[in-house]
Amino acid sequence: MTDTIAAVATAPGVGGIAIVRVSGPQAVEVADRVVGLPKGRLTRAAPWRLRLGWAEDEGGCRLDQVLAVVMRGPRSYTREDMVEVHCHGGAAAAGAVLAQLVAAGARPAEPGEFTRRAFLNGRLDLAQAEAILGLVNARAEGGLRVAAGQLAGALSAEVRRLRGGLLQVAASLAVAIDFPEDVEVEPPTLAAIRTELAALVETGRAGQIIRQGFSVVIAGRPNAGKSSLFNALLGADRAIVTEHAGTTRDFITEAVDWDGLPVTLTDTAGLRETAEPVEALGVKRARQAVDAADLILGVVDAAGDPPDTGILQELEPERTLSVWTKTDLRAPAGPGLAVSALTGEGIPELRRAIAAHSGGAVAMAGSGGPCLVSLRHQGAAARALAAVDRAEGGLRSGLPWELVALDVNEAVETLGEVTGESLRDDLLEQVFSQFCVGK
């Protein structure tokens, strides 16, 4: 980390402002060669105050009017000396400023290198560093809240607490190995840690939904009211609705934010056997969407004569919520939620029922508490839990303490991967390769 690095920190494209970052031992000196101030030099500027000046090339030709702020380490994002140059948005201005900073002695930063330096300098642990990526990639407010909680240390604190408990067990085992007649290791201590670790692992289901979104597919017979229900749930006339069966020939998908949860809602073609080629293709795609859904709304037309409930037998009951439509015309003839897209009756209850099938993702998204959103975190926690299970089983069956200690120490090391207290050679590359340049 002896190099001084520079990169554009803002997303490409036209905008009001672009920010170019510089970090490293020569950050201020490099920026001083590019940013000219009306009075004084950037090297003597008071830190953490914006200064108005001009970005200039080597010959002193003005490129753009900019604001520059000096941030002295360790009170900066990377804990190194940093400078941010705020220029006008757009590829030309930001690119010109970056090119001059590189010509003045900086090198282009690698993906995630600013956050990597923040981690290596002790500004963030690894879970907090990954929260930066979560904030950038959040699809809804719930993901934003969870990532903000992770950045604030909610997940790290929980992992360290569990890891600390395991370290105590490992220490007791080490003493027991040396003094077998004087020390007794209590299995309930490990059992309590196991229960809490299992609860953390369980948050992975909610975390996956918060990260990827919750896929809800509306399925049913032609003219069962699927498109009307789709529009009612969206609160907009997105799908075409007519009295003719088979209007929807392809699936229609919309992404919505429900109580902080990213939900992907899909309207599909009516499921029936048909010889018409275009409709048959739509039915095939509808079945593919149903197979991939997290939750299926199995729609039955309550006004049918008689209502065709056969669709519910075609859908997986574990993933299906039965919904009776057109209940303003006739009451449901079986169990399920009653809704009317015309009057709005039952729509709020249906939305709450959909949220209830999200595996606790809505509650987790609202709390901002510790949650395993990252696949890497989920894998590490699951491996740690498996090691604890082996250790607990070994204690109960009377295995030698040396063997039990191996499993406990494995759990300690694996949990440490979440926060970066245990590092494999490839771990940093795996994490920071997912970042954009400038982050």
What amount of the residues lies in strands?
15-25%
Question: Could you tell me the mean pLDDT?
Answer: 87
Q: Judging from the principal axes of the Cα atoms, what is the shape?
A: flat
Give unreliable regions as ranges.
none
State the total count of DSSP E strands: 13
Order of strands across the main sheet: 3-4-5-6-2-1-7
Alpha carbon gyration radius: 29 Å
Describe the structure.
It is a single chain. The protein has 439 residues and is of the alpha/beta class. Helix content is 45%, strand content 17%. The chain contains 15 helices and 13 strands. It has helices at residues 27-32, 91-103, 113-120, 126-137, 141-151, 154-178, 187-212, 226-234, 277-292, 310-314, 347-356, 361-367, 375-397, 401-419, 427-432; strands at residues 5-8, 17-23, 35-36, 51-56, 62-71, 82-88, 107-108, 214-220, 252-258, 261-267, 295-301, 320-325, 337-338. The strands form 2 sheets. The chain has a 7-stranded mixed sheet. A 6-stranded mixed sheet has the order 9-10-8-11-12-13, sandwiched between helices. Strand 11, helix 10 and strand 12 (320-325) form a beta-alpha-beta unit. The longest helix has 26 residues, at 187-212. The two termini are 16 Å apart. The model has no long low-confidence stretch (mean pLDDT 87).
